[in-house]
Every structure is written in structure tokens, then in C-alpha cells.
Amino acid sequence: MRRVERSAARRRAPATTREIPSQIGRFVHRRPWYSEEVGARTMWRMDSHATLAPPAAGDTWVCLSAAPLPTAEASAWAIRPDCGGVVTFTGTARDHAEGRPGVHSLTYEAYEAQALPRLDAIAEEARKRWPVIGRICLLHRTGTLSVGESAVVVAVSAPHRDEAFAGARFCIDTLKRTVPIWKREAWDGGESWGLDAQHIVDATNGTSEP
What we know:
CATH topology: Aldehyde Oxidoreductase, domain 3
CATH class: Alpha Beta
Helix content: 25-40%
Number of strands: 12
Strand order of the largest sheet: 1-2-3-8-10-4
Number of domains: 1
Shape: globular
Largest sheet: 6 strands, mixed
CATH superfamily: Molybdopterin biosynthesis MoaE subunit
Number of helices: 5
Order of helices and strands: HHEEEHEEEEHEEEHEE
Strand content: 25-35%
Radius of gyration: 17 Å
């Protein structure tokens, strides 16, 4: 019966990132720390007690983590001898949203079975658009964050700054559009899903061509 329900959900029109949690929340699995090898890439899932570390090999690091994100380590890992530019973007939890003053915490939920492959697809698409890119790091938090904590980290290296900036911008913009991760805000007046819902699309359609 569950397989039938899941197939039917796939045939429906694309949902927004605010609608999907109620539809697929029962398929979100929370597992202890482990890694999956996908080609030359490493995808990581971690619990809140683990220390997040970069992969031992490869030039792509994608991860969903309940542990704090290592912003400095991500920037350092992205450095390669042949890359003279490293661009790192960090998105942090802020203390307000439109019509919601006094935000004090955010809770992120992810559909892991889709989120991790989609993070990897973003990295692959970035490399197709800018083949000179060296390393790509895409990390996103899950669970509850306090104001000021890092929710997402993107680091991209390339031989020159133009490609590094363009690749990093593409990665964060496309992550927001294509990866099934949802934000729930708690503020002085209540608690509800975030207001920035978007239709989920494929990484190849996430942004316009460079």
C-alpha cells in the first residue's frame, strides 16, 4: 500500500517546499552516522553528536548534518594548489522574517533520500557549466538551530575568481530551488513553516545559464 501511495504522489503536480513536508514526512529517515560512496564523491549523514569532517578523497563534499557546520574547515578543504580563488557562502539563522519579529529558532527537515542525490546533482551541473572548478562543498544543517548558527555552507574553488564566484552563486541558488529541505520558524508570535516556499525543480533548471 505504501508503494502505491508513493507512486501516486509522484504523478501529482510539483509541490512547493512548504507543502511537501506533510506529504512525505513519513519517508524521512533519521539514521546514525555513516557515509555512502557515490562514484568519486562521498555523501554523509550524521547525528548531532558526531564531528563533521571532509572526505578522505575526491573533490566534492555534500552532506546533511544535525551537527554544527564547520565553516572554516569547508573553506580550507576547498583549497587546491591549482586554484587561486575560493568563494565560501554561509547562510545563518536570523532573528526575523517578514511579519515575524523575534524569531528565536529555526528547525530544518530534509527528505534525505532525495536531498543528498540532489546536492550531488548540483555539484555535477556546476562542473558542466564551469569545467575549471576544483572543489565543491555543499553542507546543510538539519534539526533545530539558534539565531546566528550556520544553516548552509557552500565553498567552491577555481583557478580564477570569476568561476569561483559564479559557481558558488549557482550552487546556493540552485540548492534553494531544487533540494527538498524545509524550514520551520519559531518567533514571539507563534511557530510555522517558512514563508519562502518555492517549486522544486531539477538542478539543470535551477537557474539560468551563465
